[in-house]
Amino acid sequence: MPIPPALLKLLKAAAVSATPIILKYLKDHPELWQGLVESFKKVVVRRGAGPRELSKTIAGLREQVVYLRESADDDGEVHRAEEWSRRLDNLDRVAALLGDGASRNEVKELRERVLALRKVIIEAFVVEHAEDAADRKSVR
User: Fold this and answer.
1) Distance between CA atoms of residues 80 and 59, nearest Å
2) Mean pLDDT lowest for which of 54-58, 124-128, 134-138?
3) What total of structural domains would you count in the chain?
4) For residues 117 and 81, what is the distance between their CA atoms, to the nearest angstrom?
5) Could you report the per-residue pLDDT of 13-49, keeping only the tens digit for each?
6) Three-state secondary structure call for residue 48
7) 93 lies in which domain range?
């Protein structure tokens, strides 16, 4: 079953370099599409995004990290989710401090840090959803 074009567009906007990994999981687990579409809509960042918009992306990523922490299968996953949560808190503080008076370079640096973290969180989020879906299927 092909992946819907709207989801492909969101995936590319949300995590360009993560897309091949994500596509494999989605092809294996088409039942995940709808839930993931809503999650990815929250973390798409437009090119000219300023600190306020980046804060919204950080909030969306925080929701994904909460899910990852709650569905963690081992201590390593818990530790990784806690680390991401700390990093998101730091990025959110930076965004709040920069506000509307930030220079282009400051905003660019913040955006790059958010995008880099977003990539790894989205990859883990999709993998965890796929694992959870497989677990639900095996229970049936």
Assistant:
1) 18
2) 134-138
3) 1
4) 12
5) 655 455 666 677 677 767 776 677 778 778 877 777 8
6) coil
7) 5-139
